[in-house]
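Holo model, flavin-adenine dinucleotide. Inputs:
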Amino acid sequence: MDLTVQALIVGGGATGTAIARDLALRGVSVCLLERGDLASGTTGNYHGLLHSGARYATNDPAAARECREENAVLRRIAPHCIDDTSGLFLVLDARAELLFQPAFVAGCAEAGIALEELDHAEVLREEPLVAPNVLRAFRTNDAVLDGWRLCVANTLAAQDHGAWAFRGVTIDRIMREGDRVVGASGRNSITLQFYTVRADYIINATGVWAGRLAALAGVEVALAPNKGTMVAMARRPVSHVLNHCRPPGDGDIIVPNGTGVVLGTTATPTADPDDTAVPPGEADRMVAEAIRMAPVLREIVPVRSWAALRPLAPAEQQGGRPDPQGRGLTRDFLLIDHEARDGLGGFVTIVGGKVTTARRMAEAVADLICAKLGVDAPCRTAEEPLPGAAARRSSV
Ligand SMILES: Cc1cc2nc3c(=O)[nH]c(=O)nc-3n(C[C@H](O)[C@H](O)[C@H](O)COP(=O)(O)OP(=O)(O)OC[C@H]3O[C@@H](n4cnc5c(N)ncnc54)[C@H](O)[C@@H]3O)c2cc1C
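Output:
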């Protein structure tokens, strides 16, 4: 398969598929290549939370604001990808109430995140199986976001606007002419068919593998991959996303998902983007932490545990202080124009962010690519519903 397009996007996760949609809606000719299936990287293995922003209210105000804004956009354009559970931040002990709650409430107010306070009796009415010693809770706009569905809907939208999209194709060569990238090639792992795509711009949306793709182009992208462990439980005894109202730490979130719940997570730096092994004892620790919020989980069987890697930018690139655990690294994203940074034209890298904020990341990338291509078309992704959204609206 030989193709020539204006923009080649490598990586079919939340970020790459959102970029494909944005550029295609602006009339740019696009090809998206993914080596596995859509969402087979971090996006298909994440915790599943459509953030209200409250989790970041005390430690990452910029991410908190972005999540709040994008939460509203996704509810508008992608209601069929969302299970609108709402969320509760549970205050379980007097120490947290004294030490964390005031900062949490102030941080949410600062970021414009709406909170509704529920007293002990109200919490137990809404969630009868949470810890009986719960003091109070704060209701937030948290919900559950299906990352796979979102990627499929983004890709369908891009294809509806003329984009090519292929799964199973690993890019293993980037073609350069002098100080410019001019295309890439790879092979489908099942059909063994070769793909060669010539493009004015290649967008590196390969998440934790961004350093490897950049190396094929002859430039360096430093990342601080950060691993999180999750555990799926066999039943769904709670109906809200539950957060432990305390400083962000290990095992402080329970996310209802389908007929079960997902417990998590952790934050462990790792150098290897393929290191998704669950460290010994970590799954048990996730279950023990979740039991503090919902003791009923003692009686429910863990079905499986797994880990995924956050494609975060290192502290130095974020202008921050060293952070051994990586929990303080901002969930904001990093967009690298390699022409400006390395003198290599035609190549752009985007890393970081969240599934919740992928549309906004894509808008920043598409703005940059359109400016370079001389395409004068506004971003429409915050207004145009995704394919399938209308059916959901009329059926509920
Ligand atoms: C433990 C954990 C919990 C999280 N929880 C949340 C949450 O609750 N809410 C939230 O909003 N965010 C959450 N996140 C963050 C979010 O999951 C990630 O920021 C997001 O999924 C990254 O998406 P991406 O598209 O950039 O990367 P990915 O989804 O990893 O996509 C990159 C894709 O590139 C492909 N690829 C790589 N190399 C090549 C190549 N050479 N050729 C072709 N294809 C290639 C990969 O196969 C992959 O599919 C969490 C992350 C982790 C790790």
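The chain has twelve helices and 20 strands. The radius of gyration is 21 Å.
Archived with the compound record.
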